């Protein structure tokens, strides 16, 4: 294997008692595999003491995040889940107040009115390209801390923006900062949660990405109507500031690679000081390589590309629907600014039901397959996706034609329930699959690749909504999207059959 060649997760691993980090990864972390920790040098060019040399077994080491007390491990996930929730509330909580923004900043173009959502999602697309790789080099904790502070500052910039251009700039920057939690959350999960429990805890992680965009407009509608659109961003900034307190008190570095690097540096002591020029050159080389890592995964890993493409289309389709809700429910059904947010309840109910079902069933299916086959593999996360993904196109047809035929307002909302349910059963299995495949070693970059592709779709597909609906109408416009969704349905079935072969035959040189 070349120095940076990554073979995907050990598909023959049994689940053992709490064996979350794969044995292959643990060995490479401490015994000189392809991991960067093994290349840290102590004084005089000697390798730093490994767990074998200093009498410690990393698998049983108290510094190993897998061995932390449950309360400490679970606190990492819960805090990250709330960070994700606020970041995703920010995406759409402002939407009901967009018409107030149009009045305040004196513009009337409907396409421009979709920019506040699209530009934020574009920030979500670009942020992971920087923050996820940096987290694998310098640790997850510094990136969480930096981006949380920046996120609050940029939200305040949106709240006090004097014109549209300033608002758009701060909206984009807040998306970039909010993207860090999207990409790092899977790595944190892989660091502290054993593989056989990840489905349940991934439900916590995805509550933000799933429910934030749907419940955001419900709250945002009332805030915008009674306090004004600027207060949407002030409230989000206040909530983020409050979350900083438990974050500072409870969040810790969880990356095994970074923990061991810090330990090696402490053991090396003052004699570790070498040529500054060499150190800077090495750091620059690592940063450059890390930043292109998500792109390499998209280009050279079939499993990352095709599954991320499916998630991207589904994500973009959902945000395209969001852009039509104000027209349908305010224009056609006469909802007010406050009550228009209630039109998102269907999506929220579908997503919440999907998250609960996925959280309960995913780990059970994994354990059932291990009992039957004597081993587990990442593809065991995909059966729910294969069976439930068709609910997405069903929801698109239902929503589109019930709105086009002016049926009772509850009918398009029910259609949104099926869309939300289908989206969860597409996105959530893919996230757990990527975490299980890449584990702690490169899961942040794998999820960053996924986030980049889906965020680009979420940014640009809604821009096509006004013209598409004007040309095709709500019925055929949503049917077109439904037919495209049907074309994606075979993907999880293909990966159930050929996924392991593709993983093993396409290692990525990172």
Automatic annotation (TrEMBL):
GO cellular component: plasma membrane
Subcellular location: Cell membrane; Membrane
Pfam (any one): MFS_1
Record GO terms (molecular function): transmembrane transporter activity
InterPro entries: MFS, MFS_dom, MFS_trans_sf
Keyword Membrane: yes
Domain of life (superkingdom): Eukaryota
Stretches the record annotates as Disordered: 1-62
PANTHER family: MAJOR FACILITATOR SUPERFAMILY (PTHR23502), MULTIDRUG TRANSPORTER, PUTATIVE (AFU_ORTHOLOGUE AFUA_3G01120)-RELATED (PTHR23502:SF68)
UniProt family annotation: Belongs to the major facilitator superfamily.
Protein name, as recorded: Major facilitator superfamily domain-containing protein
Organism whose genome encodes this protein: Parachaetomium inaequale
